[in-house]
Prior knowledge:
By secondary structure, this protein is an alpha+beta fold. It has 2 domains: 2-43 and 374-706, Rossmann fold; 51-233 and 326-371, Neuraminidase, CATH 2.120.10. Helices cover 23% and strands 31% of the residues.
Amino acid sequence: MRRTAGAICALALLLAAAACQERARTDAPPPEVARLIPRADLFGDPARANGRINPQGDLIAFLAPANGVTNVWVTPTRALNQARPVTLQTGLGVSSFTWAETGRHILFTEPEAQGGEHLFAVDVATGDVRDLTPVPGVRARIVAVNEAEPSIVIAALVERDRPELFRIDVVSGERTQLERNEQRFSSYYVDLANAPRLALKPTDDGGAEMWSRAPNGRWSLLFPIPFEGVASSRFISFEQGGRTFLMLDSTDRDRAALVRVDAASGDKTVLGESQRADVVDVWLDPATRAPQAYAAEYLRREWRGLAPAAQADLAYLDAQLEGEPRVLSRTRDDKRWIVEEEGPVTPARTWLYDRSNPQAPKMTMLFRNRPALEGRRLAQMTPVEIEARDGLTLVSYLTLPPGADQDRDGRPDAPLPLALVVHDGPWTRDAYTFSAEHQWLADRGYAALSVNFRGSTGFGKAFLNAGNREWGGRMQDDLIDAVRWAVSQRIAQAERVAIFGRSLGGFGAIAGLASAPDVFACGVSVSGFANLQTAVQAMPIDPASRRAELYKRIGDPRDAQDQAMMRERSPIFRAGAIRAPLLIAQGGRDARAPRAELDAVVASLRARRVPVIYLVYPSEDAVFAKAANRVAFFAAAEAFLGQCLGGFAQPFGRDFVGAGVRTMAGGDRIVGLTQVAPPPAAPRQPAAAEQKAAPAPAQLLEEFLNNPDLPIPTAPPPAAEERPEQDPGAQ
């Protein structure tokens, strides 16, 4: 009965959505649609972001569009209206950068065709760009920049899965190798004089060891880090003088604490800790690197000062800002900071904090990252604690549509359609901050719920390790328990719950439809994967020596028992149980989710007439870097959710202009999608030998189901990037 009613409801929604789309072509949209936040304002590139002040304090750099992609801009601190781009990169643009200690050079990385990632330096005065690592296939990581050698960057160059340490002059480009890594270390750490002092070495059991380098160059073990604590322990910085260093450590405790470590003996002194959550952020003096304040985050991020001056800074920022502060950079003399504020109803804003006069500090707004969101009606987020079936507490975040909670008790006045938003990973968390996805969903009339399922970070190593080998298992149970909680609290309508996620969350979405077909009305998977065994083998681990940790957390594909466990929990082998509509959006370069496997899932659904929409973005990886592709995806997802849950949906308008997307299946299920995102031209007929080597998706699924030992096919080579669609109205 439920399935029949659901089909009738889906048909009615489809017809209603078609009528709305048809009306939108001729009439003005209804008022409730006209006031919706445009998708591009939420998911397009920000107008400006990532502000950084140089060590001398006279220049500020930030990211902003130039040549149609994100690039680095620079402006004088005393003339903020004179900003100009200093990089003119094309392709994916610049995603992050840092100042060299010269104060005149900016460092950034950029991927290359051979799979490497090169480190570049740009002279902000001349605009000259220098490739500091001109070696094909090498992957560069910045280790340190220090005042002791202003023109030097210490970098780890990863080649053959082993990082080696180099000293590089940003002016001349000269490279000098510091360490050859004969010990198979995964990371190096230097002191404030740029001397290699520490290194991290993975162990065969998934843990790690911290090693120390003596003045004579010999390396020796300083202390071990057991597997259970390796994901919540990390190096922060050496302090001035080099006798001690700071790290976050959970070796002898459940929750990571801020500790000071004697570099010679390994003895540790706790400087800051929380009884409820890991320490996750630290303020350091820019000259001495002494710790000044630290933050832990349970429901919300909470800061504590370690000195009166830092406590005064915290109090001042709290009084001045609506959102939570995040210090992005500080001058060498510590007189000027760049501070970003952000909160659930506060889109990111970037400030210059002048503290040169402690008696009269001053805040100057540099820019609003997304000015189009200012003044919009945004939805408040409420932290909640949900109890899982085995008693574990799941910190979660609920956002309701504006006006849905008149008595402001954190619950809607009447149950709503709900979207369960599953965070990506592995090993991250949802937080109390601005969420574009939550705002988008609430603006369209849905309750949005994000759950920190077991295995999420920040809540101690016991909670983190409770997720080991539970992908598709108890992690999935946590999601189901959250939905049942939302229904029992009269937050969600039981028949109108969608599951929505990216990467690991995308896996959770497909797995949710397969393992709990009666719970979800529909699902959206972005960059998700359908086979745990394939995904764990393809996950990028840098270096490869850390793969033992990955196998202990997800499953070891070399172990027969783990193979069986991963197979049982992988939705590709349970696709026949999926009954609810599914939207899949995938990057063509995403190695973790082979197209053949997703093709097989889609083929199973189509064979059983289960509604499915399958979008492929040939030029994208797991994260959609191109703004036009992100906006186009959310346009399709909005129409899909509107049909499934009945919320508001804006017409497509120009949201597919410039996007490179192929509709592989189901384009006719969303009115207008076939017009803006046409399927690719029919391919040539393959030779007989090729036909035998590449079985049809339905045949692939059948073989997977009947032969557990069948080798998993590798992902096909990515297609060439499509030309952006031409907007017929463009000049």
